[in-house]
Backbone:
């Protein structure tokens, strides 16, 4: 999820940069600050939730991590063929 948020932030920044001279306007600067603040808040909220979930159910978190590892291993093994 963090990668998705970083991608979203990157795309918004790129869009604002493409606007050109209008990107230096006070409205766009304010929008950029609001987006940055919202993204940081969302990342912090997700981090807290993930930490809470991991601490409340460590075996489940371990199982999910193992399943993801096996899945990635299978996909990488399959792409090598």
Residues:
């Amino acid at each position: 999820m963090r990668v998705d948020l970083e991608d979203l932030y990157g795309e918004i920044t790129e869009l604002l940069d493409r606007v050109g001279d209008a990107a230096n306007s006070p409205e766009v600067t304010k929008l950029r600050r609001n987006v940055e603040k919202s993204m940081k808040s969302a990342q912090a909220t997700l981090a807290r939730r993930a930490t809470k979930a991991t601490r409340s159910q460590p075996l489940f978190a371990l199982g999910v991590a193992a399943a993801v590892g096996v899945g990635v291993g299978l996909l990488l093994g399959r792409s090598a063929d």
